[in-house]
Amino acid sequence: GKIRQDHPRLFFNADTWPGVKARALGEERAWYARLKGLVESKISRPRPKDPRDLGVEAARAAFVYLVEGDAKYLADAKSSLLEALDHYETKLAEKKATNWYSTSRVHFVLAWDWLYNDLEAAEREAVFARFVKVLDGVLATRPPIFRENYSGHNTGFYGVRNTLWFVGCAGLGAGIETAKVEEWLVWGHDENRKMLEFRRKACGDDGGGASSTLGYTFAAYPWAEQNFLYTWLSATGENIAPDWPHAAGLAN
Fold this sequence. Notes:
Layout: H1 17-25, H2 29-44, H3 55-68, H4 71-93, H5 103-114, H6 121-140, H7 163-171, H8 178-203, H9 214-218, H10 221-236
Helix pairs in contact: 2-3, 3-4, 3-5, 4-6, 5-7, 7-8
């Protein structure tokens, strides 16, 4: 009941977007210029024969479209979403891993959420339904797909299951694969809460992280925490970060 009904709702929303856009065109204009350059470069290159995992590229193009309003960026974001889907479905059919990390698939969901109001109802439904089905297929495959990261709250939590929170949060109320979306929303919320509690206990009084390997603790491990806190904030308006101050002791 706390999740806002409109879109976008992941990382920014209708209320915060003007500030995000102003920041991209203002103090972060050098970053935005690089981002836009990556999108322009992709648009100018011919598409390879085999489909690629373009989840990140879809989100880049979607962001630039929201800033610029130019239809060519919308078209590129749409084509990236479709090519990524072809890639995910091909990998599932071959029983091969898409990626050890959830990053590109999370970005896929971001692109869909950010473009929600600019997609026709039919294409919005088709894209999201295909993604839910292929993700469900990855989770259901037995034996598990080799080198697909199925880890949960007591690890880095940056594998395929990490994607479920974003799917559930973005898809709530869309009327697409509703049962699965609601199931994943609850599971994703609960698993992220378990992760925060697990890491709080691991940190203890002296500080630290959920792994004794610094490469993990300082690199990919913080993603899940930060992404959940930011998306909970953008989706609900509720800042729960102060409830979990353990991250401040990470460097210890």
